[in-house]
Amino acid sequence: MAVVVKEVLTKKDLKKWVEFPNKLYKNVPAFVPFLTSDELATFTKKENPAYDFCETKLYLAYKNDKIVGRIAGLINHAANKKWGTSYIRFTRFDFIDDFEVSSALFNKVVEWGKNRGYDGVIGPIGFTDMDHEGMLIEGFDELNMSITFYNYEYYLTHMEKLGLTKEVDWVEYLLTVPEKRDPKLAKISEYLQKKNGYKLVTYKKTKELEADAYEAFKVIDQAFSKLYGTVPLTDNVINKTVADNIPLMNLKYICSVKDKNNVLVGFAVLVPSIAKALKKSNGKLLPFGIFRLLKALRGKNDVLEMFFIAVKPEYQSQGVPAIIMDHVVKMLIDNGVKYCETGPELELNAEVQSMWKHFSVRNHKRRRCFVKKI
């Protein structure tokens, strides 16, 4: 029977679209579902401020009246303006191992892009750098992170058959926490703080973090501005991200560095891994998912995910990363953390990768953004 592709236009179909991967990968040990409520909000215009500069079209593929695939087409006007490109993006591309299905879905996005006058398609890549990006091409047996896509190995064959080629790769590292703090790094940190008037800031109360959060995201925006596909973070995006995430943060894994004028110049956020909690609850908060998530975030957890380590560009060669890394290693050791996952970082981003020299490092995953002229 032929594949039928339908645009997602109702809340009922959006829920089916969001939950399709949970069924597709239900027997895959490495798969970690996204939080369903978060994904629903991400693709609801009134809840996601990135729609101020983005448009989407969502599609479901059916075969024999059964859902067999999904995709989202995404036009990011801010990205095209910043980078001088004429791209339509795709994201959340999932499908059974049937080229008729993957090609029917992909061609819907291409058709939309052509109709809107775009000359290329890239993906998987989302609304902003805060969104999920990159198709997994190595590390299929490694437990996924809570912030990254999982996909079957056969996806790569489909991408090649669709005529897509490599645009950029991101790599992910599993870091083993050392048993002891590096005394040389500790001395460097202490020296730099005294010499330059830097101040390492930790947070005891949520209100203290809230007071610095907006400035911290501005640092993140500046630090990541030259990275592939990024867009300027608007005030609405920052405020929504802060409101959604700060109440859940474990403050002992967050720090910042301020200069002698008390201006925030560096920021680090590490989060206890919620991957196993999400997997056990299949991405649902109710009835018990919320308790599993809170236990993972607040209780004893020996695996952390590195969400952000960002330093203002002009301070990146002024010792601020060393101050942050010395504190990060110390707090990991003090709290009995064994492993950290870095999340996706561009394969040629040597500055970031140099920060992991204080750990035993294993490059355990790789993911790719593809491109095709249309």
Explain this structure.
The protein is of the alpha+beta class and 374 residues long. Helices cover 35% and strands 27% of the residues. It is built from 12 helices and 14 strands. The chain has helices at residues 11-24, 36-42, 77-83, 99-115, 155-161, 183-196, 206-223, 235-245, 275-281, 289-298, 320-334, 350-353, and strands at 4-7, 54-63, 66-76, 87-95, 120-123, 135-138, 165-176, 199-202, 254-258, 264-272, 303-311, 339-341, 345-346, 360-373. Strands 1, 2, 3, 4, 5, 6, 7, 8, 9, 10, 11, 12, 13 and 14 form a 14-stranded mixed sheet that branches. Helix 4 (99-115) links the parallel strand 4 and strand 5. Helix 6 (183-196) crosses helix 11 and helix 9 (275-281) runs antiparallel to helix 10. The longest helix is centred in the middle third of the chain and has 18 residues, at 206-223. The radius of gyration is 21 Å and the shape is globular. It starts with a strand and ends with a strand.
Largest sheet: 14 strands, mixed
Strand content: 25-35%
Give the low-confidence spans: none
Rg: 21 Å
Outline type: globular
Compressed to H and E, one letter per element, the order equals EHHEEHEHEEHEHEHHEEHHEHEEHE
Helix content: 25-40%
Structural class: alpha+beta
- Separation, N- and C-terminal Cα atoms: 28 Å
The helix tally amounts to: 12
Average pLDDT confidence is 95
Secondary structure: number of strands: 14
